Amino acid sequence: MTVDPSTKRTRALIVEDNNLMRTTLESTLLLHNIEVVGTTNNARSAMEIAKSTNPSVALLDLDLGDGPTGIDLAWGLRRENANIGIVILSSYRDPRLTGRKLPELPVGGIYLDKAKVDSAESLVQAIVESIATSGIDKPSPSRMSELSLNDSDIEILKFLWQGLSNSEISRIRNVTIKSAETSISRVAKKCGIKYSSDVNQRILLAKFYQELTGKTT
Question: Which residues form the domain of 75?
Answer without folding.
Answer: 5-133
